[in-house]
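[audit] Reproducing an earlier prediction to check determinism. Same input, same settings, fresh worker. If the tokens differ from the archived copy the diff job will pick it up downstream; this log only records the rerun itself.
[audit] input (358 residues):
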Amino acid sequence: MALAWLVTGLYFLRAYVMGPAAVSAGVALLGVVLAGRRVIAWGGAFAALTGYFALTAVIGVPLERRGQEDTLFPVEKPDLVTITVTVTWALVVLIAAELIRMRGQKLAEAARTRAEEAKRQASEERLRIARELHDVLAHNISMINVQAGVALHLLDDDPGPAGTAAARTALAAIKEASREALTEMRSVIGVLRSQGESAPRSPTAGLARLEDLLDRARSAGLDVRAEITGERRPLPAGTDLAAYRIVQESLTNVSRHAGPGPVTVRVRLDYGEHEISVRVEDDGRGVSLLDDHAGGSGIRGMRERAAALGGTFAAGPRPGGGFAVRATLPIIEEPAPEAPADASTAAARGPDTPGSTE
């Protein structure tokens, strides 16, 4: 900027032909402001103008002698119009540079905000996938492990027809649990598909499949008793999945930690007007610090699911023995999508109106 303004000042001191000579000084001034050196730009510009007008007031010649070669710098003395025009030009350049700088900052801030939002959404999606994978694998693999142990025990201790039939039942339960695990794994990993691939065709997990879930727990040797109160109705997708996963993970924890049977599990669902309550209680041995179980994330995952929906969650040993899980999930109805204007217009016209289709 200093070099550009020096050359421009010498050009005008020499009183050469007026033209776009000040453009280079303006571009340099703009660049300094955009580089963030605002104090240098504003202070340097007005210091340079003050020095230029002070010098020309001393060495300047009358306007009619401008450009004559009898002096080294045949520049005219400044008048009020010249000073006003020059200062106005400098202000216009500086203000324009400030506006461009502020807009650039806003665009950069918007880009940072979008990047942070995308990063947050990606983190939340990874957490959601991790919870889903944990719930799917923990539940079904636990069931497979229990049933495989039952089958091996029966085949070793009771090789007769009754033991073989019971082992066959356990193996059938293993087959069903593994099929269910594969189905849900495909559904969960479906979010990682490349764009353009077909969507998964299997139904998503929800309370509509609660009976299948309870039957698999019963096949693992648990005495599961279900109680549903209130008006049973379809729930929003997030609430429906969270309630199902909380029941699923609770049953998984019972099969892992309840100890030797028989173990009774009571699953209670209470449909309220604005919320649904989920309670899973067992009378097993349980563990004293299930929350802090080494490597475990089931309780934490259930708590995160409830918190993500704005609900409440509590889990801990029961006073009379066993373990209890309690969750309250709000029922927030999702807004129905608005019908396209053309579709509603066509419906209003009726099938006999020209332009409508059946």
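[audit] rerun output stored. Observation attached for the diff report: Residues 80-157 form the longest helix (78 residues).
[audit] end
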